[in-house]
Amino acid sequence: MAVNHRELSWDDISLTNKLLGSGNFGEVRKGTVNLDGERIPSAIKVLKRGADEAARQDFQQEVDIMRHAGYHPNIINLLGTCEHQGNVVRVHRQQYMALEMAGNGDLKNYLRKSRVLEVKDPAYANTRQTVSTVSSLSPVQLLRIACDVATGMEHLSSKDVIHRDLAARNVLLTDSLIAKVADFGLSRGEGIYEQTSKKAVPFRSTALEALSRRIYTTQSDVWSFGILLWEIVTLGGTPYSGMNSRTLLRSLREGYRLPKPRNCDEDLYVYFSLLPTCVL
Ligand code: AMP
């Protein structure tokens, strides 16, 4: 269902106690929202109690970027927002963000759960022969997920939204295994972004120019997409496992790139390496 963001009244929202996760500014709970008389399953993000001004601004910025991005089937869409006191009297009114529900959670965990052999080994699938013998997901399903992410990212880039933190943990899967790019609301809606704050950088999936000079563009998102493809092929493996950020930066500058996982087809690996600035 393609819906445009709207202001919701408190009566339109129904929250359960089921915690889906917690993030930068607060909790995400399972719930439903009432849209035109229809109850839609939703993940409801609530700003932390006693959140400071910076967190409030980040929350508002996430809403603004999601609104700017508009609807697309391969991104997590904003259903609506609501400001309300909730059931408890608080100094601040609480802010709520109702997001489309992705019932199968994040891609990284889902890939790891699909492993039929050793679940926790970070080098898994690097040492196995073919995806079909190591995963309960078929190669076609895995490729479908990769295509969904590419389509969602293409939409974001057409809106000049740079993600800056694309990785399997920030892709969510619906009940029918449609992949949706999430957490782009923390990005910046600009063609090029120079990070000036000292926020922690997800160094394993960040492009070399972004690590070195803090310059983020759609091309640096393409680098992260290459790493995400590697995560898919290794069923949630940890990229550059065993390397710390300093060693990795030095190695990347010297031309080192993620090696081909053993279970990855040679043709597929060569194809990925042709992606612009891609690292595979
Ligand atoms: P976030 O604050 O966006 O990083 O979300 C924290 C966690 O909540 C995520 O890692 C997911 O496990 C969960 N979550 C967030 N949004 C959704 C959603 N739309 N559907 C299902 N789970 C979600």
UniProtKB/TrEMBL annotation:
It comes from the Eukaryota. Residues 14-280 form the Protein kinase domain. One of its GO terms (molecular function) is transmembrane receptor protein tyrosine kinase activity. InterPro entries: Kinase-like_dom_sf, Prot_kinase_dom, Protein_kinase_ATP_BS, RTK, Ser-Thr/Tyr_kinase_cat_dom, Tyr_kinase_AS, Tyr_kinase_cat_dom. ATP binds at residues 21-28, 45, 169. Its main location: membrane. The active site is at residue 165. GO terms for cellular component: endomembrane system; plasma membrane; receptor complex. It is a single-pass type I membrane protein. It catalyses: L-tyrosyl-[protein] + ATP = O-phospho-L-tyrosyl-[protein] + ADP + H(+). Keywords: ATP-binding, Kinase, Magnesium, Membrane, Metal-binding, Nucleotide-binding, Transferase, Tyrosine-protein kinase. The keyword ATP-binding applies. GO terms for biological process: cell development; cell surface receptor protein tyrosine kinase signaling pathway; neuron differentiation; regulation of developmental process. It is found in: Endomembrane system; Membrane. Mg(2+) binds at residues 170, 183. PANTHER family: RECEPTOR PROTEIN-TYROSINE KINASE (PTHR24416:SF613), TYROSINE-PROTEIN KINASE RECEPTOR (PTHR24416). This is Tyrosine-protein kinase receptor Tie-1-like. The gene is LOC118432243.
